């Protein structure tokens, strides 16, 4: 995973967390849900990228 992908995912996760907190403070259920969804999407992308990296590393180890 590139540094740009990691940064983009982390920024999306942090933005989602901020939206969720603002939704909590303003009692805005829509913003709270949007923030939680955005965080989940970012975490899922991060996990997918990590899995791809692990697969590449395993492949490279076997190729020698």
Supply the key terms:
64 residues, mainly alpha, 92% helix, single chain
Topology:
Layout: H1 3-26, H2 29-63
Helix pairs in contact: 1-2
Note down, in words, how this protein is organized.
- 92% of the residues lie in helices and 0% in strands.
- The protein has 64 residues and is mainly alpha-helical.
- The protein is built from 2 helices and no strands.
Rounded mean pLDDT is: 92
Content of β-strand: under 5%
Proportion in helices: over 70%
SS element count, helices? 2
Low confidence ranges? none
Give Rg in angstroms.
16 Å
The description of the largest β-sheet is: none
Outline of the structure:
By secondary structure, this protein is mainly alpha-helical.
